[in-house]
Write a structure and sequence with these properties.
Keywords: ATP-binding, Cell membrane, Kinase, Membrane, Nucleotide-binding, Phosphoprotein, Transferase, Transmembrane, Transmembrane helix, Two-component regulatory system. By secondary structure, the chain is of the alpha+beta class. It has six helices and seven strands, in the order H-H-E-H-E-E-H-E-E-H-H-E-E. The structure holds adenosine-5'-diphosphate (ADP) and magnesium ion (MG).
């Protein structure tokens, strides 16, 4: 019975997400279509042609970010729960984020001492960490530090992952809105990244606490149960 309720809840989340992705991707696609039509006009000036091409590319990039922010959740059929080595998962996420971090002058510091395993979908978990890291990097336009670490809490049978940045931080109101679909403060934001983060961690029976101070930075604290079989 409990299983059925969980399954139904998952299906509900999945269908809500699918509807959001479809809706959000359609907007940039419609606009790309319009600009391609304009571009086919032979009388178009070189200046306009350049401008429209640039917008078309930007819109396609936007569609791309919507899809990648959602990636693992948009593919529920391949979801498989397994044992996840935290050191491996975090190093891999750090590696994927490294070129983006470089571009923004952000130094990634990983401090991973003890081996620990948790239980969940590897790809979804990685996506959640990448989404947190991406937001952290984007919060440091003038460069800074992104630190990833975790501590194992044996007595409580859990692990606390900490992901912190030295970026612009958030105020009380922003913190409260974090995780709501389409909430974004960025020109080209999707407002979907944190929704995915919360949903993935919830799906792993974890919990998230976000500490932030304007002008100082943000720390995500993720508590996850240790994988008992490991
Ligand atoms: P997006 O990144 O597309 O804006 P997200 O759901 O990933 O959407 O994030 C929502 C909003 O939360 C961001 O626009 C930003 O205002 C805020 N935010 C998330 N993480 C951080 C962070 N580490 N530092 C500052 N603000 C953040
Ligand atoms: Mg984001």
């Amino acid at each position: 019975m409990q299983e059925e309720i969980i399954q139904a809840e998952k299906m509900k989340v999945v269908s809500e997400i699918a509807a959001s992705v479809a809706h959000e991707v359609r907007n940039p696609l419609t606009s790309v279509r319009g600009f391609i039509q304009l571009l086919s006009n032979p009388a178009l000036s070189e200046h306009k042609r350049k401008e429209f091409s640039a917008i078309t590319l930007e819109e396609l990039d936007r569609a791309e970010s919507i899809i990648s922010d959602y990636l693992s959740l948009a593919k529920p059929q391949i979801e498989r729960f397994e044992s996840i080595c935290l050191d491996e998962a975090l190093s891999k996420a750090a590696q994927i984020l490294s070129s983006y971090a470089n571009m923004q002058n952000v130094e990634i510091i990983t401090n991973i001492k003890h081996p620990a395993t948790v239980y969940g979908s590897k790809s979804k978990f990685r996506q959640a960490i990448i989404n947190i890291g991406k937001n952290a990097i984007e919060a440091m336009p003038a460069g800074g530090k992104l630190s990833l670490s975790y501590t194992v809490n044996e007595p409580n049978n859990n692990v606390i992952i900490s992901i912190s940045d030295t970026g612009i931080g958030m105020n009380e109101e922003q913190l409260n809105r974090l995780g709501a679909p389409y909430y974004t403060t960025k020109d080209k934001g999707t407002g979907l990244g944190t929704m995915v983060i919360f949903s993935v961690i919830r799906g792993m029976n974890g919990k998230i606490e976000v500490l932030s101070k304007e002008g100082a930075g943000t720390t995500y604290l993720i508590t996850l149960p240790l994988n008992e079989q490991a």
